[in-house]
Design a protein that fits this description.
66% of the residues lie in helices and 0% in strands. By secondary structure, it is mostly helical.
């Protein structure tokens, strides 16, 4: 399903990770896919409030938790730079879909990284 939110459709997710050779592109691609799926779910399910938004961001965060093993297998990890980039992209998504009051930490509260 194509993203209809033009702000999101033109956004370069995880650009900091792609720019840093420490993070393998093939794994970062999977992270980008997680974020795009989150956007698709928001567009389809149209959460009415923050609780409904968090119900969508929690599973996306759990997907990143699973992705940590792939980063490690490729000689990398979700460390400070990656944590900040991922968190910023979750925040970008929330605000792009009208959830400016979302708590940036709550968006990724169940992270293991």
């Amino acid at each position: 399903m194509p993203i209809t939110n033009q702000q999101v459709a033109g956004y370069a997710f995880l650009r900091e990770l792609y720019a840093d050779g420490y993070f393998p592109d093939h794994v970062v691609d999977k992270g980008r896919a997680i974020l795009l799926r989150l956007c698709e779910r928001i567009e389809v399910e149209r959460p009415k409030d923050l609780a409904a938004l968090y119900a969508l961001t929690d599973p996306a965060t759990e997907e990143f938790n699973l992705l940590e093993a792939e980063f490690e297998a490729a000689g990398s990890e979700i460390e400070t730079v990656a944590r900040e980039a991922i968190g910023e992209d979750f925040w970008f998504i929330a605000t792009s879909y009208g959830f400016a009051a979302a708590d940036p930490e709550r968006l990724i509260a169940n992270r293991d990284w």
